[in-house]
Write a structure and sequence with these properties.
By secondary structure, this protein is an alpha/beta fold. Helices cover about 65% and strands about 10% of the residues.
């Protein structure tokens, strides 16, 4: 477990952990020696000259002091290590999550990741703070006691030694009994966590449609029921192992007791020494009995370590062996094929987005428009084909260099808990307040600020809940303006804006795109018509490409799309009176 713990928390924690383990081992050895000193002490105390007890008393006191010093140092190091482990683990988990491809973040991972970053981290923190001391003691102290018993009577020591393999076998059997049940219980807990998050997120929908007892909430109920059943099964399965291990510990002491009694009755062992060795035998079995109590906590800690280790071992996108720098900011796709699992999305896309031009990507829902926008910044790697920037495969560009060239405005905007200024500054963390406010004015965020009581220091709430959808979208656009990257990807960037603010943001985006490569995924007719080129995507392929006027003249799929959108834009709701 110690080696796995160091692997999970990182090599920087190896030294304090090893120091702690060394202190615990030393303390456990001193504890075993102190127990062993009880034999000559009791023999002297029960002998003909009680004054002979004092040398052994002073020796016991000295060993006790050494034990206390070792114990204090190991505990101080352990609690300090536990506190630093929390920071380190959260940083390592966060760094790994940031490096994973977005394809990893399927819905079922939400509950697992939440549990991993909370309960599992706490379980791992408990290893140096609470578990290592009894764990080391339960192994090292009995071994020290058995070794000391050989100094006093090899026959009783041999009897104790012969019980060790039986104790180990029963312990492994009891652990194996509960391992499968624990795995099922942990999986059920992760599933329940995901369902709780889902249930909370769906509250607006559930309440609007009056479906509090609908299948959506039923899924949570089923998950809770499954978790309860898994916990019950884990408890029922673990009881026989716990009882069996406790019985074999008592049997080990009984073996020593019977052997000592036989030797005493036979005259080979005096009563004083037998009494002293039986006290030592109690100290041999007592730490072992603690292992049974620690079983559940040890399994939880080991499971937590396995889960974190599994996350840290998740493959990230391959890094380039020799990084290259793009010559310019032209984006091109060459026979790109990509799918999510077994579901193909792009089936041979080839296109070029010339530097400094605006390209509109249109097509029916599910045709792969958003996927194209996410392949450019390499959120995923293509299944086949090549995505290039400036003639260089994005897989050959350093991630920092690649992301420095790209700004993205997503369709679904998420704002972090904090002020409007802080959320805009994410686009360029080193930007001054003046630069942030200038970007905000271009995106018309200043109009939002003037309506809020706290102005620029107004908090947006978790996820941006204090702002409307259109307001969140404008904050996101301000981020992209502030970043000032040469490639800009807009995924339905104006979908949440009213006509007046859409016009204002369009003017800001026009200024933003001067000399930049712009890809717009949009259905707004005004946005599409203003593009230098339009790519019509259908069934994972580029069905048509050209300017707005050229595509209308062809009277093909784009012309039908344009006509349908134009008719939809003229729809009106009317009321007829009977």
């Amino acid at each position: 477990m110690i080696r796995q713990l160091i692997d999970v928390v990182g090599p920087e924690h190896a030294r304090p952990l090893r120091r702690m383990v060394t202190g615990l081992v030393a303390g456990a050895v001193f504890q075993g020696i102190a127990f062993a000193l009880l034999v000559p002490l009791l023999e002297a105390l029960l002998g003909s000259d009680p004054d002979e007890v004092w040398p052994w008393m002073w020796a016991l006191l000295g060993v006790a002091v050494l034990y206390g010093l070792a114990y204090y140092d190991s505990m101080r190091t352990g609690f300090a290590a536990g506190a630093s482990l929390s920071r380190s683990l959260h940083h390592r988990i966060g760094d790994r999550v940031a490096e994973l491809p977005l394809g990893w973040f399927v819905p079922e991972q939400v509950g697992r990741l939440g549990q991993l970053a909370t309960k599992n981290v706490m379980d791992i923190m408990g290893v140096p703070a609470h578990l290592l001391r009894p764990l080391v003691t339960s192994y090292v102290t009995p071994l020290t006691v058995v070794a000391a018993m050989y100094l006093f009577d090899w026959r009783l020591a041999l009897a104790a030694t012969l019980t060790v393999p039986v104790i180990v076998l029963v312990y492994r059997w009891s652990t194996q009994l509960t391992r499968t049940a624990d795995e099922i219980r942990h999986a059920a807990q992760a599933e329940t966590g995901g369902r709780v998050v889902e249930f909370a997120q769906l509250q607006p929908v559930l309440r609007v449609f009056g479906r509090d007892g609908a299948p959506e909430s039923g899924r949570l109920t089923d998950a809770l029921r499954t978790q309860a059943e898994a916990s019950r099964r884990s408890l029922v399965t673990g009881v026989p192992g716990l009882v069996g291990f406790t019985l074999v510990i008592q049997a080990a002491f009984t073996v020593v007791l019977v052997t000592g009694t036989y030797l005493a009755l036979d005259g080979d062992l005096d009563a004083a020494r037998l009494l002293a060795i039986l006290v030592l035998a109690v100290r041999f079995t007592e730490p072992l009995a603690e292992t049974a109590v620690l079983g559940s906590a040890l399994r939880s800690a080991r499971h937590a370590l396995d889960q974190v280790a599994e996350l840290l071992a998740e493959p990230t996108l391959p890094q380039p062996a020799t990084a290259r720098v793009p010559a310019d900011n032209t984006v091109s796709f060459d026979d790109v094929r990509f799918g999510y699992g077994e579901r193909p999305v792009l089936t041979g896309v080839s296109m070029t987005l010339p530097e400094g031009t605006m390209t509109a990507l249109v097509g029916p829902s599910g045709s792969g428009k958003t996927t194209i926008g996410k392949l450019i910044p390499r959120f995923w790697d293509v299944d086949s084909g090549t995505v290039r920037i400036g003639g260089v495969d994005v897989r050959e560009i350093e991630p920092e260099e690649l992301m420095s060239r790209i700004s993205v405005v997503f369709q679904d905007v998420y704002l972090f808990q904090g002020t409007i200024l802080e959320n805009i500054r994410l686009g360029r963390p080193g930007a001054s307040d003046a630069d942030v406010r200038a970007a905000a004015r271009l995106a018309r965020v200043d109009e939002i600020v003037h309506r809020l009581p706290d102005g620029w220091e107004a908090t947006v709430g978790e996820g941006g809940t204090q702002l409307s959808g259109g307001e969140r979208q404008r904050v996101s656009i301000a981020r992209a303006i502030l970043k000032d990257a040469p490639i800009v990807l807009l995924d339905e960037a104006t979908s949440s804006l009213d006509p007046e603010n859409e016009q204002a943001v369009q003017e800001a985006l026009t200024a933003l795109t001067t000399g930049r490569t712009l890809l717009v995924i949009a259905h707004r007719l005004r946005t599409v018509a203003a593009a230098d080129q339009i790519l019509f995507l259908d069934e994972g392929r580029i069905a048509e490409s050209g300017s707005h006027d050229e595509l209308l003249a062809r009277d093909g799929r784009y012309a039908s799309f344009w006509a349908g959108r134009s008719r939809a834009g003229a729809w009106r709701l009317t009321q007829e009176w009977a």
